[in-house]
Each structure stands twice: as C-alpha cells, then as structure tokens.
Design a protein that fits this description.
Blueprint lengths: L4 E6 L7 H15 L3 E4 L12 H7 L5 H9 L3 E5 L9 H10 L16 E7 L7 H13 L3 E9 L15 H20 L3
Parallel strand pairs: 1-2, 1-3, 3-4, 4-5
C-alpha cells in the first residue's frame, strides 16, 4: 500500500509565527507514522482577496489552480492555525475560499471531499488557539472534510521556542507529533 499523502501548511506567513514553528513537530509525527508529507508555505501561493465580482470578470486568479491541484493530490491536510480575534486568520480563510471555487464543470467541494484533517494551534494566550480551531473545524466540515476530533493546542507559545525557533519542551513536541501520527494512522487504517 502506498504511503498516504498529506499536505501541511500554517495559516500564517509571519516569519516569527508560533504556528509555523509548531508545524514541523506535527509533520515529523506524520512522517514517523508512514505518511508522505508535502510542507508548503502560503507565502509561495499568494492569492488576491476573494472577490466574486472579480472572479466573474476574470475567472480564477493564476495561483488558485496549482493550489487546488495540491489539495486534490493529497488525502490529508495537516494545518497549524493561528487565532485572530477568536477566529480563523484572514489568510487561511481566503485560501480555503479560493480553493473551494468551482472550476469549469468541477464542483468547488472536489479539493476537499473526504480529506482527513489534523489540526494544531499555538498562541501566547491561555486559550492556545482553541477558539479559532472551532471555526476552522466548522468550515472544513462544511466543505466535506473529515476533521479528526483530536487536536493539539499550545498555550504560552511565546516562551515555548528557543532562539532558533525550536521547541524547548519534549512534551510539546510529542503533543504536536501525536496529531500528525494520528492523521497518518487514520489515513492508513481508518478510524481505529
């Protein structure tokens, strides 16, 4: 059986993003459990702010189709999701919206249908991004994804990384890795 393919990215492009720093631990967990992981940066896939009038006039922006193909080429998604004002980041929402747009005869749900998703988040605050994950979970479920009930949320992220951006505490690394491993295991074996 071929290794399950997982697309991993953070919902932030900020250089010092806690979520971008946490994601590699989740990726390592997925790879350790036998998955093939494609780690992308959304900064490499810039998209304009979603505008349905613009879409009607011009069609999909050039960057959307390659991103849609990445989504379609992977059975799982591993997302590190910052929280803005108790919700999803504008960058992540805009990305999910553009990828969900109809492309010719292909329904917009195609890139999401039956994808299995693992979620992690990190925040300096005590809620650890949990409030934002609630919205991410709802959006992805509406789009046709299966979102794992397990998630990992790191509070106190402002002191969780060393000067090189590496995780200091092995428990934090293990917590994020467990979500990646769970996603890989689910994709390999189903919901056991």
């Amino acid at each position: 059986m071929a290794a399950p393919r997982i697309l991993a990215f953070a919902g932030s492009v900020r250089q010092e993003s806690f979520n971008r720093r946490l994601l590699p631990a989740a990726i390592a967990g997925a790879r350790g459990a036998g998955a093939e992981v494609s780690h992308i940066e959304l900064a490499d896939h810039p998209l304009p702010l979603f505008d349905q009038d613009r879409e009607s006039r011009e069609g999909l922006p050039p960057g959307v189709r390659p991103l849609k193909e990445l989504f379609k080429g992977h059975r799982g998604l591993l997302l590190a999701c910052p929280e803005y004002n108790s919700s999803i980041t504008p960058l992540l929402k805009n990305t999910l919206d553009w990828v969900s747009r109809r492309d010719g005869a292909e329904a917009g749900s195609v890139p999401y249908k039956n994808k299995v998703v693992g979620l992690v988040s990190a925040s300096a605050g005590r809620w650890a991004g949990m409030r934002g994950l609630r919205h991410v979970r709802e959006i992805l479920t509406t789009l046709g994804c299966i979102v794992l009930p397990e998630q990992y949320c790191l509070s106190g992220a402002d002191v969780a990384f060393d000067e090189r951006g590496e995780i200091k505490d092995e428990k934090v690394r293990a917590g994020a890795a467990a979500i990646g491993a769970r996603l890989a295991t689910f994709l390999n074996n189903g919901p056991n």
